[in-house]
Design brief:
By secondary structure, this protein is an alpha+beta fold. The protein has a domain of 33 residues. It has 2 helices and 2 strands, in the order αβαβ. A two-stranded parallel sheet has the order 1-2. The termini are far apart.
Amino acid sequence: MGRRAGGAIPPLNLWDQPDGLRLVRIRGDASHESTDQWRQRASQVMQWISDGTLDVLIDRRYPLNDAAQAHRDLESQETVGKLLLIS
């Protein structure tokens, strides 16, 4: 099993889950989408952030030249929320 930012995902008994629960696995590469579809989806997410529909927790901001430290902090699994690299 691959590592996740929040640690290993424990086994899950699907029969113990409440009715109506939907489990979805998202692939990071989304190769089934065209570039235009990806841009449209990304635009929608940015709109949700802008209008407050989606609240994004930003934990830390780093200047671009501190990218190595940002990676170390992310790998430490002691961060909460997003880490931003600012150019």
